[in-house]
Amino acid sequence: MSASDLPDELWARILELGAASSALGFRDLCCLAIASRRLRRLSLHASLWSELLSRDFPFQSQSQPSSSSPSSSQQQQQLDPKSLYKTKFERHKARMAEARRRAVYDAEGRVLACRKRLTELEESVRAEGDRMKAAAQELDNLERVRRASVALNVWQPQVVHGRQKQLVQQCTVPVDSRLGDLNMELKVCKQQIATYKNAYNKEKQKLNEYEEALRRAKYHPIHNSSHTSPTINEPQAKRKRMK
């Protein structure tokens, strides 16, 4: 006895049990509808789509006929469970697409904000580096002035003595106190650069996570597979051209 010998009542009962046990979904019914005329007729039963409607959209109230007197075809379409399911599914699909777009926009906003923060940190590190270079250069000049002031107390040739004296006279700030300030400034710059670099590394890690989240939000199995399909069929096309 083959499956085609089963009566319609048994097939209808099988489909009802499948819909009630969540083993049969709307995609399965659509696939059955294109398998044969008999299964198409059985898959259009209102009880099946009513079961799917109450199962897949339990919190959405079914639309009721309006108080005005519409035509009989409009009333039938409004009360048809399959039409109701299709309408609710299209609305749900639109809401999911809108939620997906919002998720993509949010992920793109986080990525842009993170990149902006990285740019600001890079500029801060660059500014602190320039400040540290200037402090180091001034510290080197003051060290030469300090050595020159010490060398003035020792006998030297007149030419060397004159140069060192001129170097000391050109310095208008107290050397010892300024040296302490510059050493402290160098330490602060190094600490600040280390802080910026630490924040940069953490922000870079966040950027990688946000970019991965953006790729997941943009991923669509159908669209992505359609982009890769030409490369898969390319060798077959080449073989056909060679033949």
UniProtKB/TrEMBL annotation:
Domain F-box: 4-52
Coiled-coil segments: 118-145
Compositional bias annotation for Low complexity: 60-78
Ranges annotated as biased composition (Polar residues): 223-234
Start and end residues of each stretch annotated as Disordered: 60-85, 219-243
Keyword Kinase: no
A Gene Ontology term for the protein's cellular component: plasma membrane
Keyword terms: Coiled coil
Any single Pfam family the record assigns to this protein: F-box-like
Alphabetized InterPro entries for the sequence: F-box-like_dom_sf, F-box_dom
Superkingdom as given in the UniProt entry: Eukaryota
Protein name, UniProt field: F-box domain-containing protein
Organism lineage: Eukaryota, Viridiplantae, Streptophyta, Embryophyta, Tracheophyta
Gene name linked to the record: LOC100831416
